[in-house]
Amino acid sequence: MKDEGSDNQLGSYLRARRELVSPAQAGLPPGGIRRVPGLRREEVALLAGISPDYYLRLERGRDTNPSPQVLGSLARVLNLDDVERTYLLGLAAARPRAPRRKRPEHVPARVHQLLAHLQIPAFVEGRAFDVLASNPMAVALSPRLRPGENRLRSLLLDPEEQAFQQDWAKATADFVAALRTTIGDDTDNPRFVELVGELALSSQRFRTLWARHDVRNLDGGTTTVHHPVVGELRLHRDKLPIDDVILVVYYPDKGSDSDEKLQLLAVLSPTEPTEPTDPTEPTDTADSRSADTPR
Q1: Which is nearest to 285 in space by CA: 123, 142, 179, 177?
Q2: Fewest Cβ atoms nearer than 10 Å: which of 14, 109, 127, 201?
Q3: What is the pTM (predicted TM-score) of this model?
Q4: pLDDT value, residue 28
Q5: What letters, b where the CB count within 10 A reaches 16 and e where it falls short, cover 1-10?
Q6: Contact residues for 232 (Cβ-Cβ < 8 A; gap 6+)
């Protein structure tokens, strides 16, 4: 991730967010020819109550220790929400550290037992959206939820996953922003470097979203998907942290049409448990993809 500003995360984030705020949104009058998208540096400085020279130093990484008051003013000018403000504060607080050794993400044995007992789609994901373990209902819902798959890679590169999502554009934006949030200042993590590098080469959609520096949490919610066998399903999603991994469950409203369809899917699905694999090892599916549309 060096080529996209990992040594100056704070400056990269400020610049990306500045370019997304229009003069009208900032309360400035329109007019004149603007050679840059969004706000100019001097406009941000004026609205934040700091000198243009100081703001320039922040964007260029020459000053990495702004006060909370300055960051709060910048967050206000850039229209940051609570998640984005927290992310900004975290970037400013980051300090250089020694590279970390790669530590495999581990699914506790009790979680494998839990997956075997759940009668709804459930799986375990790592910080980079690697599927570490799943139950048969999860695989019946989507073969891309087998252990060894990566949810973001599937979303961006697999046409079947794109057809599966009712709102693919929103899903990709949410996932990429959530990955950016998860990474934070941990830019030397080998798994993050590998995944971002792969997707930057393979997907124009990823490159566009990554350049925006959007950040958000991807927690619980409700989604609609198009299953190739049972049709449209409206499912709730909950994410439950367990040790260093996340248990993800999907479930419908009781007695709903989606509930009946999910029960039908359970009858049609295999019952063999899925075996955990190392998500960082290439799979046949992953190896065959090198563009937005697989070969």
Answers
A1: 142
A2: 109
A3: 0.80
A4: 85
A5: beeebeebbb
A6: 166, 224, 225, 226, 258
Instruction: Kindly list the distances between the CA atom of residue 190 and the CA atoms of 104, 224, 244, in Å, as whole numbers in the listed order.
Output: 11, 33, 17
Q: What is the pLDDT at residue 272?
A: 57
Alpha-carbon distance of 135 to 144, in angstroms, equals 12
Residue 223 is which amino acid?
T
Burial 103-141 (b: 16+ CB within 10 A, else e): eebebeeebbebbeebebbbbbbbbbbbbbbbbbbbbbb
pLDDT digits (tens, 9 = 90+) for 168-212: 999 999 999 999 999 887 778 889 999 999 999 999 999 999 999
| Euclidean distance between CA atoms 284 and 159, whole angstroms | 16
pLDDT at 277: 47
Determine the Cα–Cα distance for residues 266 and 159; give it in Å rounded to an integer: 24
